[in-house]
Specification:
Oligomer: single chain
CATH class: Mainly Beta
Shape: globular
CATH topology: Immunoglobulin-like
Low-confidence stretches: 4-13, 16-23
Number of strands: 11
Radius of gyration: 15 Å
Mean pLDDT: 84
CATH superfamily: Macroglobulin (MG2) domain
Keywords: Signal
Number of helices: 1
Strand content: 35-45%
Number of domains: 1
Structural class: mainly beta
Largest sheet: 7 strands, mixed
Length: 157
């Protein structure tokens, strides 16, 4: 997969009141991550109704995540993303396994701060037409806070 990552510019306006991840009841200040599919033409609309599915014929739909309530956020956050693709794929700027199915991306992402809100770290990925269809597993770690592995699906229709 030749992935295109868009950080703060695309995701800065993404509200995160809808959650694709299954979450247990946690305190309001516990670190949390919200993720799912969004329409790049309407980021203010938030996550799409079926947030765990992306379609090849909808290239304007992105896979985005938002981490909030993180401890000790500086101006930038150290982020480690790990993707497992259903078949061999190519990811931009990734360290990939020999079989081409596991991809690790290490990056520093600007922390987004808005008055009266908890600082957040956000990132979006665009799936390419050449990416293999199927179920992807994804996990993220932000400044040492590791979130459980999640899944999303990329469908060819």
């Amino acid at each position: 997969m030749n992935k295109f990552a868009a950080t703060a510019l695309l995701a800065a306006f993404l509200p995160f009141g809808v959650h694709a991840a299954d979450t247990d009841a946690q305190p309001d200040n516990a670190p949390r991550i919200d993720y799912g599919a969004v329409d790049a033409n309407n980021l203010a609309g938030g996550f799409l109704p079926d947030p765990k599915v992306l379609y090849r014929n909808q290239p304007d739909h992105l896979f985005c995540w938002v981490a909030s309530n993180l401890p000790d956020l500086a101006l930038e956050a150290d982020v480690v993303e790990t993707f497992e693709s259903p078949k061999k794929a190519v990811f931009a700027d990734a360290h990939s396994s020999v079989d081409g199915k596991t991809h690790r991306i290490d990056s520093r992402i600007k922390v987004i701060r808005e008055a009266g809100k908890s600082p957040v770290v956000q990132k979006c990925w665009r799936m390419e037409a050449s990416d293999p269809a199927g179920e992807y597993r994804w996990q993220v770690q932000v400044n040492g806070v590791s979130y459980p592995q999640q899944t999303f699906e990329f469908k060819s229709w």
